[in-house]
Amino acid sequence: MATIRQLVLLTVFLSTVSCTAPSDVDPLPSWGAGSSRDSIIEFVEVVTDRSSADYVPVDERIAVFDNDGTLWSEQPLYFQFYYALSQIEKAAPAHPEWLDQEPYKTALAGNRDDILALGTKGLVEIILATHSGMTNAEFRQSVQAWIASAEHPTTHRAYSQMVFQPMLELMDYLRANGFKVYIVSGGGVEFMRAFAADIYGVPPEQTIGSELGLEIESTEDGLVLRRLAEIDFVNDKAGKPVGIQRAVGRRPIFAFGNSDGDLQMLQWTVAGDGPSFAGIVHHTDADREWAYDRESHLGRLDKALDEGAERGWTIVDMRSEWSVIYPIEE
Amino acid sequence: MATIRQLVLLTVFLSTVSCTAPSDVDPLPSWGAGSSRDSIIEFVEVVTDRSSADYVPVDERIAVFDNDGTLWSEQPLYFQFYYALSQIEKAAPAHPEWLDQEPYKTALAGNRDDILALGTKGLVEIILATHSGMTNAEFRQSVQAWIASAEHPTTHRAYSQMVFQPMLELMDYLRANGFKVYIVSGGGVEFMRAFAADIYGVPPEQTIGSELGLEIESTEDGLVLRRLAEIDFVNDKAGKPVGIQRAVGRRPIFAFGNSDGDLQMLQWTVAGDGPSFAGIVHHTDADREWAYDRESHLGRLDKALDEGAERGWTIVDMRSEWSVIYPIEE
User: Fold this and answer.
1) Which of A63, A153, A280, B200 has the fewest C-beta atoms under 10 angstroms from its C-beta?
2) If pLDDT is split at 50, 70 and 90, which confidence band does A3 have?
3) CATH number of domain containing B163
4) Once rounded to an integer, what is the mean pLDDT over residues A136-159?
5) Any CB–CB contact under 8 A between B3 and chain A?
6) Are residues A115 and A132 in the same domain?
7) B180 min Cα distance to partner chain A (Å)
8) Does A238 touch chain B (CB under 8 A)?
């Protein structure tokens, strides 16, 4: 009997053959003709071409994507903060003292600049207060209920409709070519896992993020995992290569980010021995999305923009290279 | 164009069909007729039967295996300690002071009981001294060189030939039925990853273990990850459910262990909502392997043996249920 692994290899082989054969189906329809599209396709064709010196076996085709600002929007606040604010609003009636107590007072007032001005200490307190104490399963249900009903304060879209259509196509294209696609987010891993399979097709075991401490607890229904009010791992900047190594155990060959928080992930990816691809989403479209880079409080893109330009990384000009930003609403 | 995911699902479906159809090929030839074999096959047939109330979708078929004592032997010392001792011997000529300095003096003398008597502090010092300081890539190469040439002190087999043939068959059987098989070891994750793909067919991203701290370092060749002399995570006892949740993001439905260090992993697995399987390897064969349980210093099986008996878990009597222990040597 053939093992699953053998059948998967056969499947991937057949799929690779069909992808490298001429096809009328455009795998990246929302990517306008441009250098980013060309560099992506050229890379994928080379690493999947068995006759190429740069051929990469399927097992090693690891692709990593930042989430906030790379797979979906991140303005005017990271979407995970909107989840946190919604939970504080929900709990506020039971906490009248919050009206005079920071950071809750500012969180409840809801002014974006004031919230950012709370600084790391205040923001961490908001996150811990709303993300810990419950079991992992309860937290997942809460996030799923929120994402199913909440809408973004300025676009009034569902958050799940603020994913970038060109990146959905890119992830599908990579998967069709034997890549294993991971999300590597500075956001909370269990927050991401609550919806990543639905909106990105990325399963929980391929979703890496920041982590709270967990403890096991014995209940009438058996052991459960409870979320602690302590940050166990920050999957950002230098933490991203560490988070990837811990979860994947391999260096990626393909990485996409959008900010200086992704710089080390990109640097580590291109420092591998074989072929590699580093991509950056440059937010240049104030009409259809947002335009920001070096001076932004969220998703600052400064050092990585310079290094990417110097080293010939693929820098996507959102305005000119993406014919569509968000999926067409049904 | 079909995505890889669709093709994999098709593959798994076809494979499932072929497995549930009558077949002359015995998937578990080294498992003698007995209750363990029956309970394994019954569980797998039920969760893969689409007409069963206990059917489990492929995505949720997560199986976890302890390593030491479950997938390979662990006596008279955990094999990872033999790697550590080999590295101390190798470095000893440059460290004449070790002849009078603990724990190196005892490590170099090589007496098993004296080494265990060093206690946690001494053993941790031996592990840190031999597992840190180098890059992850250098460490992997060192472990691979060791496992390719070292032999076990009493059986004189290669360590890779001291894996349990019945468990190799069980992992293949599960994979052929759409399970994703993980190793969940108290041993070091990068130690395991150096050979787990070769000897068990388990890729690095499905290998979970204890972790040292990692730091990124800039070199002429770009960023590398260096191993720190600090323990970051202990993937044992209550740490096992936490390690699984972090890496997989789902509760397993199938777990196998052999000691009290696996108890919480087994308890957490059977506390899920759907069907679940908990198995324990009971080392009862002093002739072909080792016989030990409640009083053993390594791999003590006491509480889990009681709880497993009470709750009807599958407890494998190695002596009577395994017709073969180790693979036939070529």
Assistant:
1) A153
2) very low
3) 3.40.50.1000
4) 97
5) yes
6) yes
7) 10
8) yes
pTM of the model: 0.92
pLDDT band of residue B23 (cuts 50, 70, 90) is low
Query: Is A330 within the bounds of a domain?
Result: no
Domain assignment of residue B186, given as a range? 4-76+158-321
The secondary structure of B171-187 as a DSSP string is: HHHHHHTTPEEEEEEEE
Indicate whether B57 and B124 sit together in one domain. no
In a domain, B327, yes or no: no
Q: Which of B149, B176, B205 is the last residue of a domain?
A: B149
Query: Which residues from chain B sit within 8 angstroms of residue A271, using beta carbons?
Result: 221-224
Task: Kindly identify which residue of chain A lies nearest to residue B178, measuring between CA atoms.
Answer: A4
Residue of chain B whose Cα is closest to the Cα of A248: B205
| Beta carbons of A270 and B14 less than 8 Å apart | no
What gap in Å lies between CA A326 and CA A288, rounded to an integer? 9
| Least-confidence region, from A270-274, B24-28, B103-107 | B24-28
Q: What ipTM did this prediction achieve?
A: 0.91
Does residue A328 fall inside a structural domain?
no
Structure tokens at A184: 């590597």
Same-domain check for residues A69 and A115: no
Compute the C-alpha angle B230/B232/B235, nearest 5°: 125
**How far is residue B221 from each of residues A237, A269, A280, measured CA to CA in Å?**
19, 12, 22
- Of A149, A171, A187, the residue at which a domain comes to its end is A149
Contact with chain A for residue B19, Cβ under 8 A: yes
